[in-house]
Amino acid sequence: MVQAGDMIARRFRLVRTEEYDIPGATRFVAYDTRLDQDVTVDIVSSLAPTAVVRAAHRARVVRDRRLTRILAANSERRDGGRVTYVVSERPAGVRLDELLGEVAFVPATAAAIVGEAAAVLGVPLRSGEHHGMLRPQSLTVTPRGRVTLSGLGFEGELGSQAHLIRGRTERADAIALVRLFVTAVTAMDADAVTADDLPEDLTEAARDLCEALLRGSGPLTLAQITAALGTGDTSALRTLVEEAPTLWWPPEPEHVDSADLAATEDA
Q1: 98 in the same domain as 81
Q2: How far apart are alpha carbons 48 and 230 in whole angstroms?
Q3: What is the pTM of this model?
Q4: Are residues 69 and 125 in the same domain?
Q5: Per-residue pLDDT tens for 124-166?
Q6: Domain count within the chain
Q7: What's the domain range around 237?
Q8: Which of 73, 76, 81, 236 has the lowest tally of Cβ within 10 angstroms?
């Protein structure tokens, strides 16, 4: 078993554990000694860790700056056993889970976030890749007003092995995004929302999208979301980040300075 202070792949030093909501993995904040930056390391303990690594490798080849980069995914021998890991970048900005349910979003801001997320997911879709476990913590709004998406591929595999989802499809991702939109504009759990709870200032297209979700008939595709909501309005999203300084993610840098690192290695 690994713990804080251990080195993974002779490069990533584990700093501390972090709360994680998908069974089959333990999440660590770690320090990348090569790139001098904080990263996320997921230590995989699911039923089929090799399948998680394969899913991470497939996601890794999808190139888009809005997708959180997977830096490494592999397994190594340790203390007579094998440790399987996935290492990802840690995007800076405001994570959606820090905002949802606290206050209703202006519909245009919610549309900018969810529409841009749908556009981002259209990139791996061209290669047949889906997320599968979209939830608020999957999305971060950066200071430049860009929506970044984390966990592509491998979180869906973890969720599948834990029986949290039935399959990874475009429709499942589209439904998850519209659920986020409904929660954003109502500040209510999407399961509790009725058509009467939707704000009056929704555009007709956005209202049709929400009502299709509430009826259980849609959406079917990511393209339906971008058609109804458009894609990211960077000015609106930059304003969102500027107005939420206390929700900055990560809240404080986790960097290990060179002196501390040397002391740890000498110990």
Answers
A1: no
A2: 38
A3: 0.88
A4: no
A5: 999 999 999 999 999 999 988 899 999 999 999 999 999 999 8
A6: 2
A7: 93-247
A8: 81
